[in-house]
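Worked example

This section walks through a single chain of length 98. The input is the sequence exactly as stored; nothing has been trimmed or padded.
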Amino acid sequence: MVDRNNLIILYDYYGELLNDDNRKYFEEYYFDNLSLGEIAENSGISRNAVHKHIKSTESKLLFYEEKLKLLEKEKKLKIIISKLKDEKLKVEIEKIFD
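Given that input, the structure is written out below as tokens.
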């Protein structure tokens, strides 16, 4: 099972690559803390359909990270930045991540 916080971070990176329905159901489930039943009722689809959308979205987020590795690269860069001695350069590089 994938860590909830990791999925949310991956959503920050790759959410714009998802279709509107997948973004909507993911946000309602992970950000608004709605149950599958609540989302299904609000959307007029079955609970199973909501579950499939969310699982599909999770798979896509993991796939995007597997291929693009943006989160992995950011973590590695932050380690390198933390080792820099030049504070001015460190601050300038850290601005890129904001």
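What to look for: The domain at 4-95 is CATH 1.10.10.10 (Arc Repressor Mutant, subunit A).
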